[in-house]
Design brief:
Blueprint: H1 14-27, H2 39-46, H3 50-63, E1 66-69, E2 73-76, H4 96-120, H5 123-138, H6 145-160, H7 163-175, H8 177-185, H9 191-205, H10 209-228, H11 233-240
Antiparallel strand pairs: 1-2
Length: 242
């Protein structure tokens, strides 16, 4: 059990829980190689449910901060052969290579989900997408670019009705939350994103899965290019090269 901790209200996102978990472990004096408490105990110390803890641990595993050993527990590992850094933002723990790799996975999974959405969508999904477009068209400044992107993709994921892929994408987006927010905040003109969304919505509306996949790939590659631009051309090529 980690002593000397204060339970605070649980935040909504698993990325924030992961940030708090890193701080909690550091406060507890854990060193690389030490075994972590059970999920139930971590949930109690953080004031969250076990499922949220499990999601946060999965994120930290992808970052290389913890080592999850089936049947043996979860252990604190090392990042680049150095002790776990004290970072105020979980996204800052991501190396350029990690961001590039996760972005590549995101591009491909978003493309698959767009095709599923076109094949399986219901009328409610189309109504939700039309509502979003109407809000953007009526006042481009009412919603931030990040909010528009988040709502659009969440609706596409829901329409795809593949809960496993939706959970995987949710985890990846949580990991990329900080760098993605920064990249999208740099977009000052919402028009190209809105136009992409409109075209994808029409493909989904008319159940054109091939077109939906093509449009989503182009859209995601443009976003990934902005996300990886600070890392240089090699990072963008790693993401968009397929």
């Amino acid at each position: 059990m980690i002593s000397g901790t204060v339970v605070v209200p649980a935040p909504a996102g698993s990325a924030e829980v992961a940030r708090r978990l890193v701080s909690l472990l550091l406060q507890g004096g854990y060193k690389p190689g030490d075994r972590l408490p059970a999920e139930r105990q971590l949930g109690h110390d953080l004031g969250v449910g076990r499922s949220v803890v499990r999601e946060a641990l999965r994120s930290l595993y992808l970052l290389g901060i913890v080592d999850m050993r089936p049947g043996a527990g979860t252990y604190l590992s090392q990042v680049a052969d150095e002790p776990v850094p004290k970072a105020s933002e979980l996204g800052r723990l991501l190396s350029a290579r990690r961001i590039a790799d996760l972005s590549t996975v995101c591009v491909h999974l978003e493309t698959v989900m767009a095709g599923f959405a076109a094949e399986r969508r219901g009328e409610a999904a189309i109504a939700d997408l039309d509502q979003l477009h109407a809000e953007v068209a009526s006042d481009r400044h009412a919603l931030t670019v990040f909010e528009v992107e988040d709502r659009f993709h969440a609706t596409v994921w829901s329409a795809a009705t593949n809960h496993v892929l939706e959970e995987v994408l949710t985890s990846i987006r949580a990991l990329l939350d900080a760098p993605l927010s920064q990249a999208i905040s740099a977009v000052t003109d919402l028009r190209w994103i809105h136009d992409d969304h409109l075209q994808m919505t029409e493909a989904v509306r008319y159940r054109d899965a091939e077109m939906a996949r093509t449009l989503m790939t182009d859209h995601m590659q443009r976003l990934a290019s902005g996300l990886l631009a600070p890392m240089g051309d090699s990072g963008v090529e790693a993401t968009t090269g397929g």
